[in-house]
Design brief:
Blueprint lengths: L7 E4 L5 E7 L4 E5 L5 E5 L3 E3 L4 H5 L21 E5 L2 E4 L10 E8 L10 E8 L3 E9 L5 E9 L3 E8 L9 E9 L10 E6 L12 E3 L5 E10 L6 H9 L22 E3 L2 E5 L2 H4 L8 H21 L4 E5 L6 H9 L6 E5 L2 H4 L3 E6 L4
Parallel strand pairs: 18-19
Antiparallel strand pairs: 1-2, 1-5, 2-3, 3-4, 6-7, 7-16, 8-9, 8-16, 9-12, 10-11, 10-13, 13-14, 15-16, 17-18, 19-21, 20-21
């Protein structure tokens, strides 16, 4: 059976299921489970769940689609957390959206939000001119520059028009922004914001809301930064002179960087246990691949947190096992030349932990 992005599926050989977010090849698709992790899965190990409601019709053949039925949209909060690392603006009337920089994914077919091409916009909702660069992170972990340029105050720019099956690729990357004004009371620091949005969001009609940025058309709108949270150069220098912890760039506040604090054992040092029994209360039915995916996801988030908050030493307890998690960590660290790593204290951890020294974190 052929699957398409947006199909709801169940696993045949284990419990649970999710949403297809990407077709890898003829025999394999990527399925996003409830925890937000994407799992490559063979199509013969999946069974499709019958789509329900208006959204389900969009995944049927054209001749099989039912006539459209109006759906009442209930009021939703202005802003909600859709997962731990992204913030989506849920209602975009003029008074509800803060001054700042935004990304918007705008379906060209406003009657069928879950099909057709999508326009990707960068929105400058400030009184500043901005210079920007837009980069996407590929499957190998490298960044590809997709666009750069300038955007006048209270304006937007079309970055690209993409096909529906490219949404997964266009939901993980970095936006870098410089602010310019002929006269302003303070000089703002540049913003370098990482964005990553759960692929399943784009296949849920409730994720799309009207926004004045796009003439009240519906879109998924992501907050890159709020202007009120961008520090000035003066504030940054003052923090450094007084030996205070620098204020992070605005976009950092939208990621769970402070999560590393729960593992702090000394100033600038942390100890993180990656045993699945620590990360999940119920794990008995997880496959080895699911367990590794969860462990590596947590490792990556804690490492990013440690770097962002200038930690200089982190111990990751991976356990002994068959060495799969340890090797996955070592391979991941190939992209971090500034990080030194070695086996942690044998007396304390045996052969079950790796110690990272973050030389350039300060």
């Amino acid at each position: 059976m052929k699957f398409k992005p947006g199909d709801k599926v169940r696993f045949l050989n284990t419990t649970g299921g999710g949403v297809v977010v990407k077709v890898i090849n003829e025999f394999m698709v990527s399925v996003e489970i409830d925890d937000g992790f994407e799992i490559p899965t063979l199509t013969n190990e999946l069974v499709a769940i019958e789509p329900a409601g208006k959204s389900g019709d969009l995944f049927l053949n054209k001749n099989d689609r039912r006539s459209e039925i109006p759906v009442k949209i209930e009021p939703e909060p202005e802003i909600i957390e859709t997962d731990r690392i992204s913030r989506i603006v849920q209602r975009g009337n003029g008074s509800a959206v803060s001054t700042g920089i935004y990304l918007a994914w705008n379906p060209q077919d406003q009657k069928r939000l879950l099909s057709g091409s999508v326009d990707v916009y960068l929105v400058n909702n400030t009184a500043f001119d901005i210079l920007y660069s837009f980069l996407l992170k590929n499957s190998a972990g490298n960044f590809s520059g997709m666009d750069f340029g300038s955007v006048p105050p209270e304006s937007k720019v079309l970055i690209e028009t993409i096909d529906r099956d490219e949404l997964g690729k266009w939901s993980n990357g970095v936006i870098q922004v410089l602010f310019f004004a002929e006269e302003n009371e303070k000089a703002l620091m540049p913003v370098s914001a990482t964005f990553r949005i759960k692929g399943s969001l784009f296949f849920q009609e409730g994720s799309y809301h009207e926004t004045r940025f796009l003439a009240n058309q519906k879109a998924v709108v992501y907050t890159v930064c709020e202007l009120s949270r961008v520090p000035s150069t003066y504030e940054q220098i003052l923090n450094e002179k007084e030996n205070r912890e620098p204020i992070p760039a605005a976009a950092i506040r939208f990621r769970p960087e402070t999560a590393i604090d729960q593992h702090r054992v000394a100033p600038g040092e942390a100890e993180v246990d990656l045993h699945i029994s620590v990360l999940r209360e119920e794990y008995g039915k997880l496959t080895p691949h699911e367990i590794l995916t969860i462990q590596m996801g947590y490792f990556e988030r804690m490492l990013a947190s440690a770097i962002a908050f200038s930690f200089n030493r982190v111990v990751f307890i991976h356990g002994i096992g068959n060495g799969t998690l340890k090797q996955a960590i070592i391979k991941y660290l190939d992209d971090y030349k500034e990080i030194e790593f070695h086996s942690a204290s044998f007396a304390k951890y045996g052969n079950g932990a790796i110690e990272l020294i973050l030389h350039n974190s300060r």
